[in-house]
Write a structure and sequence with these properties.
The complex is a heterodimer of chains A (291) and B (340).
Chain A: H1 2-33, H2 40-58, H3 62-88, H4 93-115, E1 130-133, E2 136-139, H5 140-162, H6 164-174, H7 176-181, H8 186-211, H9 219-233, H10 238-258, H11 261-278
Antiparallel strand pairs in A: 1-2
Helix pairs in contact in A: 1-5, 1-8, 1-9, 1-10, 2-3, 2-4, 2-8, 2-9, 3-8, 5-6, 5-8, 6-8, 9-10, 9-11, 10-11
Chain B: H1 14-38, H2 42-67, H3 75-93, H4 97-119, H5 124-144, E1 154-155, H6 163-189, H7 192-202, H8 204-209, H9 214-240, E2 242-243, H10 245-248, H11 251-264, H12 271-289, H13 292-309, H14 313-325, E3 328-329, E4 336-337
Antiparallel strand pairs in B: 1-2, 3-4
Helix pairs in contact in B: 2-6, 2-7, 2-9, 2-11, 2-12, 3-4, 3-9, 3-11, 4-9, 6-9, 7-9, 11-12, 12-13
Classes of the chains: A mainly alpha (291), B mainly alpha (340).
């Protein structure tokens, strides 16, 4: 029993780190820009396939792919921001939401065309290895993915709190007009922020791909997951997102230990619906903006 | 002839345009009925049946989503519940889906109310996300419940009719449904209820302040919409004759409905009439040479472009054309006036 509880907690924390990584990009973009990026999960899916293609064609380890995904998806995100999001920001909320959904459907189906609907998995030489911490058994791949997620979250936190660019981005999140008046180049910084959000999605996709099988159609499922983390943690705060991710991970593994597998999702979906209904903007943040 | 699509509210010449529109609609409907009665191509009858089904669904979505601005990404939830209601009633009690379709509507509306009362307090993207997630949750319940036979699904025996007569039957079923629902949406558009919904869409707080009972309006719109979607689902169960949770609660259904409403022009009764045939016929034509993903890619690009450049869809485009080329004249003085 003790060993089982320990395994559940360790597993939950490691998965939680990855879930925090999934929610991070969504939370930053929503919190600072007020754009609900429903295409977030589509970029997560692209991240998984990015690692898959590198591994299959060039034999590059997913750990290296995670680092490579950062600049690649940053660039992708910046391009998407300049071509699409700048327009989305100035349309009505309904039109913006529809455009983002359109983007999600577009990426998903491009994915289906390129990679078909079959589920894929990243199987490396360490995928099925594990080690023991006392009585508990922990999979190496989860430790690696969890560690990388923690590094990503830590880097994002340091960037937002200790660099001038990061602080300026936070200033935009607090008051966009005031930030512009003070001489902050809002357009340029938001390009960076959106690029970062998508880079987070891409890296999270690589990490998820290390643990779970993935398919283009399965990405909508991770959208629900990312939203769960975001509404639980509130907007735009890296630390809160981390805590929320860990909570979701722990809830998932504990629920998984006691109820049949399918009902774990039901519990988490119900949780999400309840949280959204009770506190629309999340549990810890003050309602700032609604679009 | 296409004047129907140019008509909105307006001055005295509106009456002539309206008359043209009415004649056009009656002629179009007459042609469809005639084809349904004498047409012998099963493929075309079947395609048109699907078009009418989607016109019905999109019009129903339009009530809350188009006029009210609440984007429901969970049409499949209520569609699936409707379909499963008639299928379960048939499987356990032998009742024909045609008799139990109203019950399917009531069940879907009931779920609509249960889901709607808390979720309709959410706004914008949050409402869209929750409605999407509820589809996943309901699908899991149906996959694991014994009354629905879980992933095994439910078979409905085929009706004792020739394949052609069968297509004809569903052609008229869905045509009737589409006509009734379109008339309902037309009535809503021209009623205080419709204007109240539009007020909710444009500025909910302001609407509340000037005395629109926004909460009640949203609940009613949602109940009516889910009732219609449930009925359509109930009849659809008999049409496809085999239901399983993945097809009945497919996210594709929710997505198709939103795409059609947006491309046609959300918040207009003509929008679904334009977009549903357009999308389905193009999809049908493309499937000969392309896969359906290609079709999705095309329409998602169309949707992005429409959302960003033509906020009111094909209908909005036509209205702006009218404003450009057809100047409204005051019937007494002959001066040009700004059109509505």
């Amino acid at each position: 029993m003790g060993a089982q509880v320990l395994t559940v907690i360790i597993d939950g924390l490691l998965l939680g780190l990855i879930y925090a990584g999934i929610g991070l990009g969504l939370s930053l973009i929503l919190g600072v820009m007020g754009v609900v990026n429903v295409a977030h999960s589509a970029f997560i899916m692209l991240g998984s396939y990015f690692a898959y293609e590198l591994f299959r064609r060039a034999g590059i380890d997913p750990i290296i792919s995670a680092a490579l995904a950062l600049p690649v998806f940053f660039l992708l995100g910046s391009v998407v921001y300049r071509t699409l999001i700048t327009r989305v920001e100035f349309t009505g909320p309904t039109q913006g939401l529809i455009a983002m959904f359109g983007l999600m459907v577009l990426i998903e189906n491009l994915g289906v065309i390129v990679w078909t609907t079959d589920a894929r998995a990243l199987t490396t030489h360490y995928t099925n290895t594990s080690f023991a911490i006392g009585p508990a058994v922990v999979a190496w791949v989860k430790v690696l993915a969890g560690g990388l997620a923690l590094a990503l979250i830590g880097a994002a936190w340091v960037f937002l709190h200790y660099t001038l660019t990061g602080r300026a981005i936070r200033a935009i999140g607090q008051d966009r007009d005031a930030a512009a008046v003070l001489g902050i180049n809002v357009h340029q910084l938001l390009t960076i922020l959106f690029g970062l959000g998508i880079a987070c999605a891409g890296v999270a996709g690589v990490l998820l791909g290390m643990i779970y099988p993935f398919s283009p159609g399965g990405q909508v499922f991770w959208l629900a997951w990312a939203f769960l983390v975001v509404v639980l943690g509130g907007l735009g705060s890296v630390a809160n997102t981390l805590v929320a991710g860990l909570v979701v991970g722990i809830i998932q593994t504990f629920a998984g230990a006691f109820v049949p597998f399918e009902f774990v999702y039901l519990i988490l979906y119900t949780l999400l619906a309840v949280i959204l209904i009770v506190r629309r903007e999340g549990l810890t943040s003050v309602a700032r903006r609604s679009i | 002839m296409l004047s129907i699509f140019f008509v909105r509210k307006g001055g005295a010449e509106d009456r002539t345009l309206r008359l043209f529109g009415l004649v056009f609609c009656v002629l179009g409907l007459g042609a469809l009925i005639l084809y349904g009665a004498i047409g012998t191509k099963q493929g075309i009858l079947s395609l048109l049946g699907t078009v009418f089904l989607y016109v019905t669904l999109t019009q129903a979505w339009n009530i809350l989503g188009g006029y009210g601005g609440y984007l429901n990404f969970g049409t499949a939830t209520f569609f699936g519940v409707g379909a499963y209601t008639t299928a379960v009633l048939f499987h356990h009690y032998g009742l024909s889906p045609f008799l139990t379709a109203p019950i399917a509507g009531v069940m879907a509306a009931l779920l609509g109310v249960i889901v709607g009362v808390p979720t309709l307090r959410l706004r914008g993207a949050y409402f869209a996300i929750v409605t999407m997630i509820i589809t996943f949750a309901v699908q899991i319940v149906v996959l694991n419940a014994s009354i629905t036979q879980g992933p095994m699904g439910i078979f409905l025996p085929p009706l004792k009719l020739s394949p052609l007569a069968l297509e004809r039957l569903f052609f008229f079923m869905f045509l009737g449904l589409a006509v009734v629902v379109t008339l309902l949406v037309y009535a809503i558009e021209n009623s205080n209820f419709g204007w109240a919904l539009v007020a909710v869409r444009e500025d909910e707080d302001a609407a509340e302040v000037i005395g629109v009972k926004t909460t009640r309006i949203k609940y009613i719109a949602n109940a009516v919409a889910t009732f219609i979607i449930g009925i359509a689902g109930g009849i659809f169960a008999q049409r496809i004759m085999y239901l399983d949770p993945t097809t009945a609660f497919s996210f594709d259904i929710s997505l198709n409905v939103v795409l059609m409403a947006v491309i046609g022009g959300a918040g207009t009764w003509q929008g679904p009439l334009i977009a549903a045939p357009l999308i389905l016929v193009v999809a049908d034509m493309l499937r000969v040479t392309f896969t359906s993903e290609v079709n999705r890619v095309i329409f998602s690009i169309v949707v992005i472009v429409i959302a960003l450049y033509l906020p009111h869809g094909a209908m909005g485009f036509m209205t702006s054309l009218r404003q450009k080329y057809f100047k409204w004249r005051n019937p007494k003085t002959g001066d040009e006036v700004a059109s509505a």
